[in-house]
Automatic annotation (TrEMBL):
GO terms for molecular function: transmembrane transporter activity. It comes from Rhizobium loti. The keyword Transport applies. The keyword Secreted does not apply. This is Monosaccharide ABC transporter membrane protein (CUT2 family). It is a multi-pass membrane protein. It is found in: Cell membrane. Keywords: Cell inner membrane, Cell membrane, Membrane, Transmembrane, Transmembrane helix, Transport.
Amino acid sequence: MALTIDQPIEHKQQSLAARLFASQTFWVVIAVILACVFLSFATDAFATSKNLYNITRNITFVAIIALGMTFVIITGGIDLSVGSVLCLSSMILAVTMHAGYSIEVGILASIATALAIGAFNGILIAYLGFPPFVVTLGMLSIARSLAMVASNNTVVFQFGPDHAKLLALGGGAWVFGIANPVLYMILLALITGFILRWTKFGRHIFAIGGNEHAATLTGVPVRQIKVAVYMISALSAGIAGIIQTGWLGAVTTNLGTGMELQVIAATVIGGANLAGGVGTAFGAIVGAALIEVIRNSLGLLGINAFWQGVFIGGAILLAVLFDRIRNFRRSD
C-alpha cells in the first residue's frame, strides 16, 4: 500500500503526543500550572510580585540539591545525608569567614568539605558494598554533629570582612531583578541536563541504573561512577548551603533539618524512579516547584502548616502509582 508524505509526519506527531502524555513530568507541570491558576483566583496574595519572588527563590534550595540527588537516584541509590551536608558546609563557610578569612577561602573550604563527605559515602557504597541507605543515614548524624562541634552549637551571623559580599551572593538580584539563587538554579539545571543527556558520563549513569551487572560486563566503570555521583550529590548540597547562608545571613545547627525528605520527594515527584534508570534535571525542578507551591498555598488559604507533610506524602504516592501504572502498560 502506497504511503503519502503526510502519514509518517502524522505518525511522528502521534508518537510525540503519546510520549508526552505518558510522561510523569508533563502531568506534574500541568498540576503546578493548575494550582497556580486556582490560587490566583482563590487568594489575592498569591499572584503578587513579592509572593512570586519568594516562591521562585524558595524553590531553588530544594531544586539545587534535587539536581544532585537525581544523579544518585538514577543509579538506583539514595542519599539521606544532604540536609546535614548542607548544614555542615554552611557552618564551615560561616566559621571560616568569621575567623577573618576571605569569602573565596570560605567557599573553597565549604566545597572541599562537601566533596570529602560525598567521596567517603561513595567509597563505602561502591568499594565496600555498604547499603546506600545505611551509609547516608549514618552520615546524616555525623555531618550534623560535626556542624555542632565546628560552631560549638552556636548561631554564626558575623562573616568577617567579606560579610556584605556573602549576603549579596545569596540575597542579591543582579540580573533583571531575578533573585540570584534562581539564576544559580537555572545554570546548574542546564549543566545537569547537558551531562545527563549528551555526555558519556551521563549514559553510564543510566546504564548503571538500568542494569548494573550488564553495565559492568560492557566495561562501564561502575565503582568510579558511583563515587562520582555521591560526590555530585554532596556538592549540590554544599552549593545550596553557601547560597542559603548568604540569603539567611546566619547559620544554625538546625539548618537543613528534614530537607533530605523534601529533596527526595521533589526528585520522585518529578519523574525519577527509586529503582534507578529514570530521571531528568527538568523533573527535579518541577518537583521542587510543586512542593513549594503546596507549602505556599497552605498559608495563603489559611490551612494549618502541619498538613504540608500530608500533601507532599500524597504527591509522592501518586507519583509512584503513576510509575507503576506506566510500567504495567509497557509490560502488556
